[in-house]
Fold these 2 entries.
Entry 1:
Amino acid sequence: MQRIPSTSDLALHRGRVPKIWQKEIESVLISETHLRTRVKELAAEITRDYAHSEPVVISLLNGSTMFMADLVRQIPLPIELDFVAASSYGTRTTPRRVRFTKKVSIDIRGREVLLLDDILDSGQTLWETRRQLRTLKPYRIKTCVLLDKPSRRIIRIGADYVGFTIPNLFVVGYGMDYAHQFRNLPFVGILCPELFSNEP
Ligand code: IMP
Ligand code: MG
């Protein structure tokens, strides 16, 4: 069984890939420390902006689970949590279709909604999810993503809150996967190119 590195291992390696992941992960893009700092900053910003409201935070499964868990615990407001799941299919060259496999359970009519995702890439998932949620007549929907890859955008959409803007790299960890793996890495890493086939 693989051992998950402890925080102290990571402190020692700081920016270097912990030994147990070196076969699969080429480098650490965002360390655990940087994630923690930035998530705290985002939470402070969101807390200020929503100071007098009771937002519903809706998180897109599965990629944004770690981000959501860390973010909302730093927001001292009466928030409610819900999840949606979307799966998209198609290729990079044809518009992908987004299908919802889990819909929102809370009644969001008239509510402030903050929609969270792990990464804004082509923009299709966030755009389509927001469009679907709008049909439920919330008061307003704002969006928050941990990572933004603007160079990959197909649809014109930006997020209201962005953790980090990153170049066109395939990343894993902190909730994000490649073929269902690597979600449990405590940092955001770059996958070794030989493990990665380009078509999602
Ligand atoms: P979009 O619809 O192209 O914006 O895709 C967004 C979704 O694709 C994200 O929610 C992720 O699940 C996935 N994704 C995009 N880029 C990456 C990546 O670099 N690593 C892991 N998942 C990614
Ligand atoms: Mg996702």
Note: The first strand starts at residue 25 and ends at 30.
Entry 2:
Amino acid sequence: MDKSQNNVAAGLEGIVVANTQMSMVDGQAGRLVLRGYEVGQLSGEVSFEQACGLFLDGALPPAKDTEAIGQALAAARVEAFDGLDQVKGALKQDDAMAALRGAVGQWGIEDPSDRRAAALRLVGALPVWSTAWWRMRNGQAPVAPDARAAHSADTLTMLHGCAPSAAKRRALDAYLVAVIDHGMNASTFTARVVASTGADLTSAVTAAIGALSGPLHGGAPGPVLDMLDAIGHADRAQAWIETELAQGRRIMGMGHRVYKVRDPRAAVLERAVEGIEGELTGKTAQRLALAHAVEAHAQAMLEAAKPGRKLRANVEFYTAVLLEALELPRELFAATFCASRALGWCAHVFEQRDTGRLLRPRARYVGPAPKAA
Ligand code: COA
């Protein structure tokens, strides 16, 4: 593509393709509004079960409904665990996202009579498949879900084989709530396009998982940890970043297509890591301190190297630190993101269906004119 075509593509960015009640991203002010709440009013403040009610029903649920949502998610976990044999081919994939994509396809999630139940059945099943995938790859038997546990606690139990502390459960809840939705991102747009054709929820979600599996969408937290590993100590941050920039490489976890200030999710995730600090192992406390130092150096050096670009920490920066503190393997980072974002996809699919309209954007033709006859 030549430069002028790139400019055409840039000019087409940011066009409005749908009305939505799900979320609003203000990249200049650094705000993310989720269903009428600032992200910081929800993440760390409400449980994932409550957030399910908010996204599927439009309002934070009363205690009784929250309990019913918890029971529906738990029933979905149990059903998915009992049916692991049905998706065992998918769980043999080498990549967690490929495993989830295959499992959703083989499982089938559409229940036309009750779309809310269908969404909870999907969202409940995802961590069962991702944790079973991880454990089986590592020669361990999958751990059965505990139907009485909160969804985030059970996610960690199914992975590690023992129940997490309350602080760790809260931290995973904060993460799952923070990343449910984020405007018309690539995977959400994918889900809406598929849904707009009248296709079923299984098709919309498998397509969205495919979109999320790409490294430009769901893939940066692993490389952020690689960067922190490579830097090792705050004293080395400046020199390391200098070398990367001199070689034309990007600093992972910095910069965003929409945000021109610090991503508001970085702050809530940082707060979530600090919430477990009381019981952090020395390693995680050091990691957090290193992350703070690297972020400060990276921000200053990017400002000098790319003046006016406003490259700041994005969601992936502290996602990496948080998920590592919860002892999630890097191979499950994208799948954990998916376990939350799937709720957003379902809400968008239902919203799109309610419009009854096919999404059919146009492309601007920039090819050669037809030869004269
Ligand atoms: N490190 C170094 N330079 C960066 C950078 C980063 N993290 N992010 C952007 N830039 C530079 C680009 O090289 C470009 O420089 P140029 O104008 O001299 O060519 C300029 O800033 C603008 O980059 P552009 O590619 O137009 O920004 P974008 O909006 O397309 O990119 C990202 C957004 C997120 C893809 C980009 O910031 C990036 O690659 N970040 C690192 C990966 C990451 O953290 N991804 C997770 C995103 S949630």
Note: The chain has a mean pLDDT of 93.
